[in-house]
Amino acid sequence: MTKLLDAPQRPARSGGPAGPAQRQGLARSIRSLLTSPKYGPVIVTAVLFVAVFVIGGVRYRGFFSGQVFLNLLVDNSYLIVLAVGMTFVILTGGIDLSVGAVVALSGMIAASLLQSGWSPGVVIPLILVLTSVLGLLVGLMIHVFKVQPFIATLAAMFLARGLCYVISQNSISITDETFVQLAVARIPLGGGMSITPSVIIAVVVVAVAVWVLHATRFGRTVYAIGGGEQSGLLMGLPVARTKVLVYVISGFCSGLAGVLFTFYTLSGYPLTAIGTELDAIAAVVIGGTLLTGGYGFVLGSVLGVLVLGVIQTIITFEGTLSSWWTKIFIGALLLVFIILQKVLTARRR
Amino acid sequence: MNVLARVVAHRLFWPVVMLLVLFAINLIAFPGFFTVSVRDGHLFGSLIDILRNGAPTLIIAVGMTLVIATRGIDLSVGAIAAISGAVACSIILGSPTPGSLATVAVAVSVALLISLVLGVWNGFLVAVLGIQPIIATLILMTAGRGVAMLITEGQILTVNSPPFKFLGSGFWFGVPIAVIIAAVVFGLAALITRRTALGMFIESVGINPEASRQAGVRARGLLFAVYTFCAFCAAIAGLILTANTAAADANNTGLFIELDAILAVVIGGTSLAGGRYSLLGTLVGALVIQTLVTTVYTVGIPPIATMVFKAAVVTVVCLLQSPTTAEAFSGFRRRLALRAGKGVAAS
User: Fold this and answer.
1) Could you tell me which of B254, B315, B257, B304 has the C-alpha nearest to residue A108?
2) CA-CA distance, B301 to B47, in Å (whole number)?
3) Which of A154, A166, A275 is closest, CB to CB, to B305?
4) Alpha-carbon distances, residue A118 vs A130, A297, B123 (angstroms)
5) Nearest CB to B304: which of A169, A274, A332?
6) Which helix (H) or strand (E) covers residue B172, if one does?
7) Is there a contact between A324 and B146 if contact means CB atoms under 8 Å apart?
8) What is the spatial distance between Cα B237 and Cα B231, in angstroms, rounded to a whole number?
9) How far is A278 from chain B (nearest CA, A)?
10) 3-state secondary structure of A260
11) Interchain contact, B142 vs A332, CB within 8 Å
């Protein structure tokens, strides 16, 4: 559709003499880019991120450094992985409320098994398998039994939190050597800057997700389901398999995020990561994925995580602002972006 | 036979059976389960405990029932409960006379008024901006806890005010105050929605908002009313919870209570797809949940496993309500009938 509409302007832009006509064409194409439901929110988010980062740099000394930026990745690597899984789910028009509880659960499993002497080489794959199976069950409940996604994932959230309590009510600290070494390891990037192995894992996950969504049949089916499940079915796409798989991916990502979060905290605690599901959903929405599904990018979600991270960093730099302002800011930002989505999709219609 | 079939087909049959089974388990584990005695002029006993501890959940579930009937959901009730508790406690703490009835009355009314504002906010997001209810109320669910933290300045506010404490643990004619409040809320909701056409309007909005608007139902106003009522219920429950411990804890007051409330509504047979609700079912659902918690204690299962049980119950109920299961059942019944018919023909 957009291609057809854009086509007449193109010759004028490339071939015509420089002048008001060209500027007008450029302005129009910028406007159509900003108001498209596909690119608009992502561009707004990118601008917002740069703006907030610059404001922070002007206001605070020591903010405008590469390490502050890299720390955004270090502190939020688990959230990036979560947001990637959530992007898949939301692209199909679903939602996963269980991710926070699953993060806590995988932290608890890791901590308790490592405490009883298991090797991390066994524990981490085991966690990933378990959380994927949980995602599979949720997906089957949603697809086969037509349970609404939010109620099915709500049940999974209950289950995961409950299992956390069953494992232990108290915080378990991790002392396993390999695990601790993975947690404290820094990879120098030169210039006094460094990242953690978690960042590399997160980047790999993002790269794989981008490839899956944009270069495979599965990825296109995900977008198709979000655009219209019925049409997808009529086109002969494997809707059932894809819908279930999306929740498996989200479960896997939650498990991996739990492991990364455990690297970060080096302990398991049943009440940790309460409300993380909102952070993940907020990151995805701010990153420009439409809540009704069909439009969105994984890289947008990463940008969304970075925006949340930079807000958190600013609140830390400010010092006088209490940390619970973060929650209020995230809520407000989420609201603004949902309204933006509404406006953009309404205009297109 | 016919009567039995009608009883089994009744909407409340399975919830009531669930409740009775739980009662039976309790009676086996603890023979004195049903005894209610009068001590110091107060009623005492396991049943009274269930009613009293279940009151906040029931109050919120009543509001949630009406929201779900419009095909909505309100995830922010826990946060609203925390905010109302925080507001009331900070007002009582700030006044020079924390023990006077007037102070408590002011604190409670301000908390309730604020909840009305929050409810209108939710209603605005859903009815005017047209945001999906889950997401619209998710915003207040997180931001609300932040607001509550802001009010309490991140501390647990402990108040020493007898009239306020009375709200949570007092008795009136031997009956716990919380139970009386829950009964009043339940009675009012049932009276207003079922004795007038309001309930039908709410259901019609749940079935098809656009069609009901064209039929002359003011869908937008109804959505506002329903979300405001739900927030109001949440605030009442929050006040009871806070008064019970005489402390406002912004992080933990009403934590996960939205799940309990949704669970109560779902167990009660109200479909999450909207368009149909049963307040009586919600009452039974809330009792089932509280009895489940009590059962976990009396049977001697570690109480920490309660959440796993709740997850199992919600899963089973959802699977039973699912159209796929209904289809499978009817297919099974048809095959049974077919086989029975063949048998008759052969003999």
Assistant:
1) B304
2) 19
3) A166
4) 16, 38, 51
5) A169
6) strand B171-172
7) yes
8) 10
9) 7
10) helix
11) no
Cβ-based contacts of A331 with chain B (< 8 Å) = 139-140, 142-143, 146
What is the per-residue pLDDT across B295-312, written as a single tens digit (0 to 9) for each? 887 777 776 777 888 888
In our burial notation (b when 16+ CB lie closer than 10 A, e otherwise), range B129-157 reads: eebbbbbbbbbbbbbbbbbbbbbbeeeeb
Contact between B139 and A335 using a beta-carbon 8 Å cutoff: yes
Q: What domains appear along chain A, each with residue ranges and CATH number?
A: 40-342 (1.10.3470)
Of A245, A309, A261, A210, nearest in space to A99 by CA: A261
Q: Do B145 and A95 touch (CB under 8 A)?
A: no
pLDDT in tens, A42-86: 888 888 888 888 888 888 877 777 788 888 888 899 999 999 999
Q: Give how far the C-alpha of residue A88 lies from the chain's centroid of Cα atoms, to the nearest Å.
A: 9
Instruction: Tokens for B304, please give them.
Output: 């920490």
Quick: pLDDT tens for B12-64: 777 888 888 888 888 888 887 777 777 777 777 788 888 888 999 999 999 99
Inter-chain touch B311–A144, beta carbons under 8 Å: no
Gap between the Cα atoms of B159 and B93, Å rounded: 6
Instruction: State both tokens at B332.
Output: 């099974």
To probe the interface with B, which of A158, A170, A274, A337 has the most B CB atoms within 10 Å?
A158
**Residue in B closest to A285 by C-alpha:** B135
Residue with tokens 């409740």: B19
Q: How far is CA B40 from CA B37, B174, B231, B317, in A?
A: 10, 9, 36, 41
**Is residue A163 within 8 angstroms of chain B, CB to CB?**
yes
* ipTM of the complex, rounded to two decimals: 0.76
Chain B positions in Cβ-Cβ contact with residue A312 (cut-off 8 Å) = none
Q: What is the C-alpha to C-alpha distance for residues A334 and A268, in angstroms, rounded to an integer?
A: 29
Query: Can you tell me the distance from the alpha carbon of A203 to that of A302, in angstroms, rounded to the nearest whole number?
Result: 10
Averaged pLDDT, groups of 10, chain A, 349 residues long: 42 47 72 71 83 82 79 89 93 90 92 86 91 93 86 87 86 82 80 83 94 91 88 86 92 93 85 81 86 85 90 80 78 83 69
Q: Report whether B241 contacts B254 (CB < 8 A).
A: yes
